[in-house]
């Protein structure tokens, strides 16, 4: 689904990604790692937002930076999400539905969104997160990429998102970045740890539970 080879992204002297080689198969894939480790940079290259400094990436067989067709097959939710303030949630989702298909009302119902006709500038952070998730899901894309799917959500909404992934994983692939990884583990297939601009661990979720627990307790004991 995603293949990267010696992928690098430098911002001046900052080596945000410093040679990542990875093959991410279909399924539900979770990227974790410390703040500033390079997760979002990898995500943005995979989403076609950043051009790599060097190296190669293919997502669903396409070059995300160059291939316009790519955007019809992939739904993306960034964190933080950027929206134009004066449009309504419905108008925003209609833009995505226009080129990817799908129905804004259906995806809104799935996420428990009952505020589609209000202007986005009136939304709370949790409402913005839900709209951003809806934007990634509308039109049933082949790959759904979500940066922080559970951030800013209440417990009910978190449970709903986990259930949505559980249902959709039969026909859709996911690439997730999440600091809140524990609720996601039951629906995740594989975990990747990016730190210091490098891929430092990867594996099936069953093998990675211990690695995750160690990372978590290390980050507490080192403070
Ligand atoms: N647009 C940018 N310009 C300059 N430096 C950047 C830019 N984006 C990221 N960086 C730097 O690249 C490094 C990796 O950042 P990145 O956002 O990829 O990390 P992350 O793992 O997603 O972190 P977090 O968990 O805090 O979101 C950091 O040192 C960051 O300061």
UniProtKB/TrEMBL annotation:
It comes from the Archaea. Pfam families: ABC_tran. One of its GO terms (molecular function) is ATP hydrolysis activity. InterPro entries: AAA+_ATPase, ABC_transporter-like_ATP-bd, ABC_transporter-like_CS, ABC_Transporter_VariousFunc, P-loop_NTPase. Keywords: ATP-binding, Nucleotide-binding, Transport. This is ABC transporter, ATP-binding protein. It comes from Thermococcus gammatolerans (strain DSM 15229 / JCM 11827 / EJ3). PROSITE patterns: ABC_TRANSPORTER_1, ABC_TRANSPORTER_2. Residues 2-221 form the ABC transporter domain.
């Amino acid at each position: 689904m995603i293949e990267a080879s010696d992928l690098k992204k430098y911002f001046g002297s900052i080596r945000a990604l410093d040679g990542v080689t990875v093959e991410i198969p279909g399924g539900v894939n979770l990227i974790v790692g410390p703040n500033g480790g390079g997760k979002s940079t990898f995500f943005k290259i995979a989403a076609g937002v950043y051009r790599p400094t060097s190296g190669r990436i293919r997502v669903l067989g396409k070059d995300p930076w160059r291939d316009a067709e790519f955007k019809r097959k992939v739904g993306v939710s960034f964190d933080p999400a950027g929206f134009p303030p004066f449009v309504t949630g419905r108008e925003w989702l209609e833009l995505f539905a226009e080129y990817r298909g799908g129905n804004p009302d259906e995806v809104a119902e799935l996420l428990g969104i009952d505020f589609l006709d209000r202007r986005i500038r009136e939304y709370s952070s949790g409402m913005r997160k839900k709209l951003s998730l809806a934007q990634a899901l509308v039109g049933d894309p082949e790959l759904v990429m979500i940066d922080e799917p559970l951030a800013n959500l209440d417990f009910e909404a978190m449970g709903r998102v986990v259930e949505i992934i559980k249902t959709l994983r039969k026909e859709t692939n996911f690439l997730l970045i999440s600091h809140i990884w524990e609720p996601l583990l039951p629906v995740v297939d594989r975990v990747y740890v990016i730190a210091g601009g490098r891929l430092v661990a990867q594996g099936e979720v069953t093998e990675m539970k211990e690695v995750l627990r160690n990372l978590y307790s290390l980050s507490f004991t080192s403070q």
